[in-house]
Amino acid sequence: MSPNTSGLKVSFNKIMQKTFSVIPDLDKLNQLTKGNMGEMLGIKFIDATHEMIVASMPVGPNSKQPFGLLHGGASVALAETVASVAANYALAPEENLYAVGLEINANHIKSVSSGNVIATCTALQLGNKISVWEIKITNEAGSLICISRMTAAILKRKS
């Protein structure tokens, strides 16, 4: 007897069809970083499709650690910014829900000291109570700098 995998298949199919019912507008996404850490780090949303959201961040004085390399915390801030935005855009507005970060982890693979890093965020799991997001951060040459995963809690807005 084979294990019941029908739930996994449904979730996988839902993710692969369309994470976002409407492709997020880049101008609206970039307005979300105004007046907060995203703006201070120079995070810019540069691409969005039905399946992913992509943002860039310059490697400079606001994102470097004392030894001249991209700070791991800046990478995590980029990852959480793009995943939090993605988690909220994946929700149907009429359901009166919002998403907040519940847990994030990151593995720093390679250092970078200049240029820009690019974060590509895709859904791994879209559920009723949580969603799980994978964020791959690369340098401009496409080399993996950091791999991160964020779990978001799905909450109901108070009326």
In short:
By secondary structure, the chain is an alpha+beta fold.
Overview of the molecule:
The chain has 159 residues and is α+β, with helices and mostly antiparallel strands. It is built from four helices and six strands, in the order αααββαββββ. Strands 1-2-4-5-6-3 form a six-stranded antiparallel beta sheet, sandwiched between helices. It is globular. The N and C termini lie far apart (47 Å). Residues 1-16 have low confidence and may be disordered.
What is the element layout, followed by pairings?
Elements: H1 6-17, H2 26-31, H3 37-41, E1 44-48, E2 52-58, H4 72-89, E3 97-108, E4 116-126, E5 130-139, E6 144-156
Antiparallel strand pairs: 1-2, 2-4, 3-6, 4-5, 5-6
Key descriptive features of the protein:
Thiol Ester Dehydrase, Chain A; 6 strands; single chain; 26% helix; 6-stranded antiparallel sheet; alpha+beta
Write down the domain tally: 1
Look at the structure and name the CATH superfamily.
Answer: Hotdog Thioesterase
Structural class: alpha+beta
Mean pLDDT: 90
CATH-defined topology:
Thiol Ester Dehydrase, Chain A
